[in-house]
Specification:
single chain, 2 domains, alpha/beta, Alpha-Beta Plaits, 4-stranded antiparallel sheet, 29% helix
């Protein structure tokens, strides 16, 4: 039996799949616990025939393994572009700018999201929306070579960066599917200009990508105890 928080994650993921996914689509498959429920829902609908011909492009090795387990056929970005990507978020700002990457797959998540025609459908429970981004750390995926100097450059932007360590082996850095490290950057007072900060971070040699997803979210599907709320981005 799953807990209340897991039920809300499932409700958001199921609502997003049921509302947005149609037969014949190629869909980007996000990473993390909430996105996993979306992958499972796709497998369920394909198995009973309510959806046909849906294919997925995974954003992590773990997501790829889950999709294969539940019967969602997979493609690569070289074979197709997703109609949109369904993914979770760590924080959702009022303008649908989000922070992602605390699960460890932000670079691949952003690549797939950026090449999705309909951008991102964010699925989350009610703990994720925030008034100001940066309540928790902003992940930055970094090149292992010279990571110490990369963290020094990040700290010059006003944050407190920490190299993420492997949970299974805390004496060694966490390594992403792409073979990179992750710096978790805490900004005291929050992040008030995410687009500018994203650009500044990406100008640092060794900082490969950051967890700010600016202008990429089409809709946020958020489940609370009272039900599921869908917020769609204004036309851009």
């Amino acid at each position: 039996m799953i807990g209340d928080a897991e039920n809300l994650k499932r409700d958001a993921a199921y609502a997003a799949v049921d509302r947005y996914v149609e037969s014949g689509m190629t869909v980007g498959l996000g990473s993390g616990t909430t996105a996993a429920f979306a992958v499972k829902r796709l497998g369920e609908l394909l198995a009973d025939g309510r959806l046909r011909g849906v294919r997925g492009i995974p954003t992590s090795e773990r997501t790829a393994a889950l999709a294969q387990e539940v019967g969602v056929p997979l493609l690569s970005l070289s074979e197709a572009r997703p109609a949109f990507t369904i993914d979770g978020a760590d924080e959702i700002g009022p303008d649908l700018t989000v922070i992602k990457g605390r699960g460890g797959a932000l670079l691949r998540e952003k690549i797939v999201a950026a090449y999705s025609e309909g951008e991102l459908i964010i699925v989350a429970d009610g703990s994720k929306p925030v008034e100001v981004l940066g309540e928790g750390p902003l992940p930055v995926e970094v090149e292992p070579f010279g990571w110490e100097t990369t963290l020094e450059a990040l700290s010059a932007l006003g944050c407190e960066p920490t190299l993420r360590m492997d949970r299974a082996d805390p004496h060694h850095p966490f390594v992403t599917d792409g073979g990179h490290y992750t710096a978790d950057c805490l900004f005291p007072g929050g992040i008030h200009a995410p687009a500018s900060l994203e650009a500044e971070i990406k100008h640092i040699p060794g900082a490969l990508e950051c967890g700010l997803f600016v202008g990429l979210t089409r809709a946020a599907v958020v489940a609370r105890e009272g039900g599921v709320e869908i917020t769609e981005a204004k036309s851009r």
